[in-house]
Structure formats: C-alpha cells, structure tokens
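Deliverable D5.2: sample structural annotation.
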Amino acid sequence: MTHTKLLTDFLSTLYKFIDYTNTLSLNDVHQNNNDIFIETFNHLANFANQIPVELETIKNDLITNPNNKQVMIKYKQILLSCSINEVIEKLKSFYIDYKNVYPQLTKDQLDLMLKIRDKFNLSDSALSLVLIFISKLCRTSFPSISFDLIMEAFKIKNDLGKFLGLNHLKNYVFSESTLSNQLSLNACPICNGQGEPFHNSPCYNMINFNDDFLPSKLWMKCNLCENLYSKYFPHKFMSDNPSIKVIRKSTTPPPSNFTDINTHNLRNWCDILNNLTKHSSGTNILEVGIGKGALIATALEFGYSIDCIEIDESVACEISNMLDHDIICCDFLNFKTDKTYDIITMGDVIEHLSNPIYGLKKAHSLLNNNGVLWISTPNYESAFNKLHKINVAMWNEPYHLTYFSKVGLENIVKNLGFEILDYRISINYNGSMEMILKKSKKLA
C-alpha cells in the first residue's frame, strides 16, 4: 500500500536519526554529521502536509552554523517532536479515514512500526493509541499480533475507550479479570477440528459491546470445516441453561426500541413466508430467535400458527406484551416438545449457539417429513465482504461465536440430512446469507 510504505520509509529514516543523535557527543560536532539531520528533514518534508516555520528557520541556521551545539540540540528536539507527531497523525488517519485498509502490512513493515514502542518516548495514552492504530493495519496479515496489540493497549491504558471517540465506551474500563472469565477454544465448536488465526477484529467498536467480552476478537479458521470461530468467548454464554418457561402478556407495553419495524421490514418477511410456503405442505411455524417480533406479526396477519423461542427473557416479555402472543423463553438446545412443524426459522441464530451442529440436528428432528428450515447467518466470504474487506460490522460482533461461509454451511447441512432448495443474499443484514433447507432423510 502506497500510504503505509510512505510511513515505513519515513520511520526507517527517523530511527536512524534517533539512534545517531542518541550516541552523538555534544563535544563531537562535525560538519559531516549534519547529513542525517538534513536527510531526515527532507524526508519529513515529503511525508508531512506542512513543515513548521520554526523548524525551517533553525534548519537554515544549522546549515550556516554546523558547529553550533545549541542550534543542533534545538534542531534535534524540534525535528524529533514534529516527526513523532506526524507519524501518530498518519497512523490515526489510517484508523479513522481509510475504510478499507487493504492489503495489510508486510512483516518488515509491521516490525518497523512496532519499534515505535522502543524508539519514541510516548506517554501511556499516546502509546496505547498508537498500538490500536497499528492493530488495524495487520488485522488480516498478522491477526494474532493484531489481537495482542489491542489487548496490550487496554492493559497500558484501561480507560482507553474514552479516548477513541465512541460514546458507548466513555465509561468503559478494561479489567484483566475479564481474561479469566473467557473460555479459550482449543478446537472448532462446529466440527471439533483444529484452527489457525485468520482475522482479528476490534469488537469494542460495536455499540452492543460490554465488559463481558475482551475488546479484541480473534477469529480462527477451522482446517477441517473451513468455517470460523472465536478463539475466546465468555464462559457465561457457553454454559448450559436448562430453564424453560412460557412468557405471556402481562401489561400494556410502553413504547420501545422494538417498535421501529417499518413497512420494508414487514414486506421482506412477507416475501420470505410466501417463498417458504411454496416449499411446505403446511403453515405450522416455529421461530427460533424472535428479534423484534416482525416475523411473528407477519405470520399472525397471514393467519398462520406460530410458536416462538427466545433465550433473552427481557426481549421475550416485551414482544409478548406487544403482540399478545406467548413466547417460550429457553435455550433452543434445551427445548423439548412433542410437536413437529412444517416450517422452522432460525434467523441469525446459529452463529450464537455453543453447539451449532446440535442446534441444526434439533431443528431437523422437529420438522415434519419434508418440512423446511429457513436459516440466515453472516457469511464471511459474502459478496459484501469481498467488496468491503475489513470494513464489515459482522467481523466485530461480540456475541457471535461462529462465522460461516456458504460452502462451509452447505457441507454441514447436507451431511445432516437437508436438501438445499434456495440460496440468496440477505437484505436484512449486510454480508449475510439465507438458505431454505428441506428435511430429506432421517438422521442416523
């Protein structure tokens, strides 16, 4: 990348300047020692948007009086200060202004940038921000290093969030105790295969981020199923919760954030239901994960029978009150019923499940013969991701445990006894995919 090469070339010159001036004795001032001073100035002039007048003036004084120690000392101080400020501002511009930092740094470029820790005498605040800036430049080329840089930054400055310009982080303080609350996944939760670091993401960017999660999310790519999974995930979201209860309408609900469903959203669910009923012999539906209640409302308008499962009790209560409809509050993996269904929907659910294979098997078992399952989930190899590179919110989503590809998910559902009837790009979420699957055979 031209911009990062310009920065690393300048850093290389600047480090030579720092090393030279650190070893230079004030009693040994010679005219031929000024070459590195002028070279660094010229490089800074090409790198920076503007050279301070004071620096330009003192450079001319140094050329005129090369043996003046006081002039040399002042020139060194101002040149170094200007250079460091320009480097930090350039890194900041990469972090803020460049939406698609791609391709990422090479190892040599990264090594040069990481020397900033040793070469620059930065405050904790400045150093932590520099580490955050650099982490973006190696998210895909060196994801493990990118992860470590974000973690190091928050360890150095635990209230770093308030300096990143994000309102939801203004009161966030990182605690190292969060580390002990994470499960380190040594194998893929989808197929139990081994994984390698694939992509690192700053999940602190997401508005739903909280201190249950680490501020950095390291995605691993499974060598067996080729899907992705989070290396670290909070224990509390992986533990088994066997409780099951039915939420019924209790009070008239106040206005809430769930009422922002518009006609476009409802029309989309109308189209999805119409497409599903073309492949199904009935309209008895089970929805797993109710979102904002749009599918329930649409199905009720159509006169369909719909049972609903939601793991978040607060969401279940609010939607039940709003729509006057019973909601089963439980973890789908622990759901038990003697009923079977013509249609099951799992809209953006499987990426949250601690055991997605078991979740798909359970859906298979709850379908009538020839019943259909509708799935939507983020696709890390989607057309949207290919176009937008690292600037895709789904990389940063803290609550997602897994991240599928089209091929990776297709292989799984075929092995579980499903026939793929339909595949399409989701219009609900950028970079997500939707599949309609038909129960084609019994599982062994």
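Annotation notes: The longest strand covers residues 367-378. Residues 69-96 form the longest helix (28 residues).
The annotation will be released with the project's public dataset once the embargo ends.
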